[in-house]
Amino acid sequence: MRNKVLHSFFDRALRFEIGILSAIYVVFVLTDQIPFIAFLLIAFFYFARQIVTGKFTSDALRNSFLTVPILFILALLPISLAVSVNWFLSLPKVYGIILGALFFFAIVNQIQTRDDLARASVWLVAVCLGIAVAGLIGTDWAQGKIVGATFLYDHLPRFIQSIPRSIAGGFARNGVGGTLAFTIPFLAAMGFARGGAVWARQSLAPDSDKNRVGTNQPRFPNTLMMRLPRPYVSFVIFSFIISLVTLALTQ
Questions:
Q1: Taking residues 119-140, what's their average pLDDT?
Q2: Dihedral, CA of residue 14, residue 19, residue 23 and residue 28, to nearest 10
Q3: What's the mean pLDDT in 47-62?
Q4: Of all helices (H) and strands (E), which one includes residue 26?
Q5: pTM above the 0.90 mark?
Q6: Which tens digit of pLDDT belongs to each residue from 132-176?
Q7: What is each CA distance from 213 to 113, 133, 183, 223, in whole angstroms?
Q8: Long-range contacts of residues 91-95, Cβ cutoff 8 Å, at least 24 apart
Q9: Phi then psi for 120, rounded to 5 degrees?
Q10: pLDDT score, position 87
Q11: Which of 37, 177, 199, 240 is the most buried (most CB within 10 A)?
Q12: Under a CB-based contact definition with an 8 Å cutoff, are residues 134 and 179 in contact?
């Protein structure tokens, strides 16, 4: 009985891995530092996965095409630090790369079943929305552009300031735009692409609807948006629109 309780606890804890890593990354972006408790939490998730699945990582990460390029980049980090003349400025970059790799590993490790895939999609959409909103309220907007939007920049709230290593205290607009260039296609696929989000319905739909979802089901003739729960569809579309607005302002 005790083992079942512990197994259930660790299994539920793993569902929050992507969210916790996202929070750690937010703290890192705002402070340029990673708290010691963050390393403990990361180790806890790998320990929990070992308890639940008997493995520290999923079988998918044993695919060399997924792991070798990332491990190669991580292997170059000590060399980068060795030639650095200022570790104080270099370490945040190293932390960022490590967190990015851990985030990728967390996503792959999370996806074992269709339910896991659905939960991971919700977390990723939330992260995409968070990036777009953070860009709106914390970017150093450029005034001299081909198409000026000064009347908009002057009315946008500025809640995020004093970003480490920032010239004007906010996010670099090119960095925000570059990040959104990756997240917007994902949101478009989730909300509009045919077949792009069929798996998101498994965990989000009512139990009575889950039984009608299967691998042998024919493809829907139009977009899958109408087959998904309305709150989730609205969430995806709202994230997509906010991301597009933020990207437009950075250009």
A1: 84
A2: 80
A3: 80
A4: helix 17-31
A5: no
A6: 888 888 888 765 555 556 667 777 777 777 787 777 777 887 888
A7: 14, 33, 27, 16
A8: 92/28, 92/32, 92/33, 92/164, 92/165, 95/28, 95/33, 95/34
A9: -65, -35
A10: 85
A11: 240
A12: no
Torsion of CA 28, 13, 239, 246, to 10 degrees: 0
Reading the block at residue 109, the tokens are 């490790």
Q: Do 15 and 107 touch, CB atoms closer than 8 A?
A: no
The residue type at 23 = A
Contact 161, 213 (CB under 8 A): no
What lies within 8 Å, CB to CB, of 42 at 6+ separation is 21, 24, 102
- Give the Cα separation of 45 and 87 in Å (integer): 29
Q: In angstroms, what CA-CA distances link 105 with 18, 102, 200, 231?
A: 10, 5, 20, 28
Single out the residue of 122, 249, 143 nearest to residue 241, CA to CA: 249
- How far is 40 from 48, CA to CA, in rounded Å? 12
- Amino acid at position 17, single letter: E
> In sequence order, what are the residues at sequence separation of 6 or more whose Cβ sits closer than 8 angstroms to the Cβ of residue 64?
none
The tokens describing 157, both together, are 């709230």
Encoding tokens for residue 6? 């512990």
**Predicted confidence band of residue 37 (pLDDT cuts 50, 70, 90):** very high
* pLDDT greater at residue 143 or residue 6: 6
Give the pair of three-digit tokens for residue 63.
């695919």
What DSSP designation does 34 have?
-
